[in-house]
Write a structure and sequence with these properties.
Number of helices: 9
Order of helices and strands: EHEHEEHEEEHHHHHH
Number of strands: 7
Distance between the termini: 52 Å
Radius of gyration: 22 Å
Strand order of the largest sheet: 3-2-1-4-5
Structural class: alpha/beta
Shape: elongated
């Protein structure tokens, strides 16, 4: 089976997690930072301490202590079947298929409508790896290699490039000139400079690449990436 790669905007979406154990907790932890309208967890057991803490701090997260009911799927746009019961998970998947709802099945990924790739996140930068279910172990190994290659400095770099891009577009320069600047920044050693906390070199590089009208803002941007205190 070949999966279609997709990054999904969860804003305004309602998500259902069937199973509040360790796997369900990981699903909830991945969903909440993406600002869904609501995440509902259904499980007959009491929520564990980590899930309870999330419930206390997120108004869009609810927990219903009871078994799964077919009506739970109504209104949901994304469903995760992650109980310890293969029978319950299969039932969740079948109800989702009947209702045209996307469903991820943790114990039988091929039986669901989507799988979650191995991924790393550095701020707004997300890198995913998938073997289409052929070898999750290989996906994990490649993800670990990527984690080592793209460290925490890429969170600051992505934030910096986003700020520069917005400022560049405000100048109203020709698109081809903007592309040259964006390409020069993306291929520059900025990430290494941020990792080394070399603020002076970062300032020098940005002054060399960016148009003069943006130079007054360079110090502010570098302070954000490489705090002086």
């Amino acid at each position: 089976m070949r999966y279609y790669p997709l990054l999904l905007d969860l804003t305004g979406m309602r998500c259902l997690v069937v199973g509040g154990g360790e796997v369900g907790l990981r699903k909830v932890q991945g969903l909440l930072p993406c600002s869904p309208a609501a995440v509902t967890v259904v499980d007959p057991a009491e929520p564990g301490p980590e899930l309870a803490a999330l419930l206390a701090s997120h108004g869009n997260l609810t927990y219903e202590r009871r078994p799964f009911a077919e009506s739970d799927v109504q209104g949901a746009q994304l469903v995760f079947a992650c109980t310890s019961s293969r029978e319950v998970n299969a039932r969740v998947g079948e109800v989702c298929r009947q209702n045209g709802v996307l469903c991820n099945m943790t114990d039988a990924p091929e039986a669901g409508s989507f799988v979650l790739p191995a991924s790393i996140t550095r701020g707004d930068l997300t890198i995913t790896v998938s073997t289409g279910g052929a070898s999750p172990a290989l996906s994990r190994v490649i993800r670990q290699d990527i984690e080592a290659r793209y460290g925490e400095e890429y969170e600051a770099l992505t934030r910096l490039l986003a700020a520069i891009r917005a400022a560049m577009l405000e100048l109203g320069r020709p698109s081809n000139e903007n592309r040259e600047v964006f390409r020069a920044l993306a291929t520059s050693p900025l990430a290494s400079l941020i990792k080394a906390k070399d603020r002076d070199a970062c300032l020098e590089l940005l002054r060399a690449v960016l148009p003069a009208p943006l130079h007054p803002r360079i110090g502010e941007w570098c302070d954000d990436c490489i705090p002086t205190v």
